[in-house]
Amino acid sequence: MASKRILTLFTRKYCGICEDAKDQILAIQQKIPFTFNEVDIDQPQHRQYLRKYNFDIPVIHWNDSLLMMHRIERSDLEKALLQETSGKSQVNEGNPARNPSNSSGGSGNGGNSSSGVGSL
């Protein structure tokens, strides 16, 4: 059974860290093949994501599951995607700071680029 490889970036216009995340994704895509989708949460058809991620963008989903949010470090994203594409069932196993169920307690954009995912 072939597994899907779809990475979705939730973003909006005028978001500098979203542009940085997109640049990281495109660079990684040169090494790891996957389908890349970009979703502008401010578009009317994506209103459900605006309510969910308004203050958390950029947000990255891998195959419809939350992978990362806030500042995206290329090394962290690449490591997570390599784990996922090598057959690991849980992308966040090796990095509790990126696992939504293990909140780092931070608000997300606090300047620490490895702060990871906060509580949803």
TrEMBL record:
The keyword Cytoplasm does not apply. The keyword Acyltransferase does not apply. Residues 83-93 have a biased composition (Polar residues). Gene3D superfamilies: Glutaredoxin. Residues 105-120 have a biased composition (Gly residues). InterPro entries: Glutaredoxin-like, Glutaredoxin-like_YDR286C, Thioredoxin-like_sf. Residues 80-120 are annotated as: Disordered. Keywords: Electron transport, Transport. Belongs to the glutaredoxin family. This is Glutaredoxin-like protein. It comes from Rhizophlyctis rosea.
